[in-house]
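Worked example 2:
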Amino acid sequence: MGGRFLEALLFAVSSLVLYSFGVGRVLFLVPLQVASVRRGTAGLAAAGGIAVVGLAAIRLAGLLPAPFEEGALLASGTEVAVFLLLAAGLAAANLRLGDTRALVRLLAAAAAVCLAGAPLVAVLAASPAIAGLVDKVFADTSRMLQSIFATGDSVAGTMLEALIVPDMLKMMIRESLLNSFVLAVFAFLAFSWWAGSVAGSRASGSVPVPRWRFSAFRLEGWWLWPLIASLALVLADLLRGDLRTSGAWLSYASYAAWNAALVMLFLFGLQGLAILRFWLEKRGLARFVWPLAVAAVLAALVTPRLNVVAAVALPLFGASENWVRYRSGSAAAT
C-alpha cells in the first residue's frame, strides 16, 4: 500500500514539475498516463488527485499575501479546475467499454471536457477583473505588433493598424479558439494518451509494448458521414455569415459545426499521412524521408494561402481511400 502511494506521489510530482514550465505543459499529463498503464485507472486517479491537490496548494500559497485580490482567486481556481478536467478526461479515455476503439473514447472524452469547461469560460467572460486583464494583454500585444510591423507605406500601414487593433485581435483569437477548442483538447488528450502508453509499456517489463503502427491508422467508412455533415454545416455558416448573430442556438450550432469539421479534417489528414507512411515503409524509405515529409506538411500548414490547400487536400486524400485501395501488401520494418 505504501509503495503504491509513493509511486502515485512520484507521478504526481513529475506532472506538476512539467506543468510548472512553459514547454513542459504539453507533457504534464504523460506521467499520469504512465500511472494508468502501470496501475490501471485507479493509479491514474490517485496520481491525478494528488497533483490537483498539490496545484491547488501551490496557487493558494501564492495568494496568501493578498487572498482577496479581485480576479486572482477566480483565475487560480479556474486553472486548478482545468487541470482537474483534463486529468479526468484522460481517465475517461482509459475506461474500456467493451470493444470501443480508443479513438472513439478519446473523442468522447474531449467533447465531455469541453462541455464541462463551458461554464468556466462563461464565468471568466462575465468577470470584470478578468475582462480588464484580457484587455490589457491584447492592448500590449497590439502595441508590440504595431511596432514590429511599422511601415512607411501609408496605405499598408493603415490596413495593418486596422487589423491589429486590440478589439480586432481579441475578436479573431476568440473566434479561432471557439472554432477549434474541441480539436485542441482532443489532440492534447490523444498525444498524452499515446506518449504515456508507450512510455509506461517500455518502463514495465510485465506490460507488452504496443505494436500499433501509425501506417496502419485507418478510419472506417462510416466516418465519412460526420465529415460530410460537418462540412455542409460549415459551408452554410460561410454562406450565411450572420448565423452567429441570429440567435443563441444558431451561434452554438455554428461553433459546433466548425469544431466537428476541424476534428474530422484532422483525422482524415492523419489517414492521408498514414498512407504516405505506409508507402515509405514499403519501400524502406520511412526512416530517412518521413521526417522531411512531416516537416513539409507542417510548413505548408503555417504558410498563408498554401495552408488552406494543405488543410483540404490531405484530408481529401485520406478520405479517398474509401474508394481507392492505396495500402496493399506489407510495409517493411523500420
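Residues 166-203 form the longest helix (38 residues). Residues 154-159 have pLDDT under 50 and may be disordered.
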